[in-house]
Design brief:
The structure is a single chain. The protein contains three helices and five strands. With 158 residues, the protein is mostly helical. Strands 4-3-5 form a three-stranded antiparallel β-sheet. The protein has a two-stranded antiparallel ribbon with strand order 1-2. The protein is rod-shaped and about 120 Å long. It starts with 6 loop residues before the first strand and ends in a 17-residue tail after the last helix. The relative contact order is 0.06.
Length: 158
């Protein structure tokens, strides 16, 4: 993959592009200085490779309209990509924050649901006792009532 983050802008090299900075890249931008790269090659690469590496390592020249135009389009696309990446990163941070809030809210919802279920069971128990008490007291207060648990006209059901 060719890294062209800095590139050449308006004819001045921000991070100049060089051919063959590394054996497995056609071209890439110089990070640091070219002098540091040359010194590294002389000190750390096999002696049989040094001449070839240094001979082939040279600045990319933007000396044709085709290359200048392609690079200008690349720079434009790269700027849009960089802007989109920043927005994507910002959206990702907001999503992470929202997800954390959702997780917290979900835990509270589950906790409240458990309490609601527990309260519902207690209510059912209390309601059954209430109905039993009401029915018992009704029999005491209305001794000659035909109430059958559903109507005071049980014969109408027949």
């Amino acid at each position: 993959m060719h890294s062209l983050r800095g590139g050449v802008q308006g004819g001045s090299a921000v991070n100049p592009l060089y051919w063959h900075l590394h054996h497995d890249e056609l071209f890439e931008e110089v990070i640091g200085s070219i002098e540091e790269r040359v010194a590294y090659i002389r000190s750390n690469k096999p002696a049989r490779q040094v001449e070839t590496r240094l001979r082939l390592m040279k600045p990319v020249r933007f000396d044709t309209p085709k290359l200048r135009e392609a690079f200008a389009k690349w720079m434009e696309a790269d700027a849009k990509w960089t802007e989109a990446a920043a927005k994507w990163k910002e959206a990702g941070a907001k999503w992470t924050e929202a997800d954390a809030k959702w997780t917290e809210a979900d835990a509270k919802w589950k906790e409240a649901g458990a309490k609601w279920k527990e309260a519902g069971a207690k209510w059912m128990e209390a309601d059954a006792k209430w109905k039993e008490a009401v029915a018992s007291d009704h029999a005491r207060q209305c001794p000659d009532c035909p109430w059958d648990g559903k109507t005071i006209f049980p014969e109408a059901k027949r």
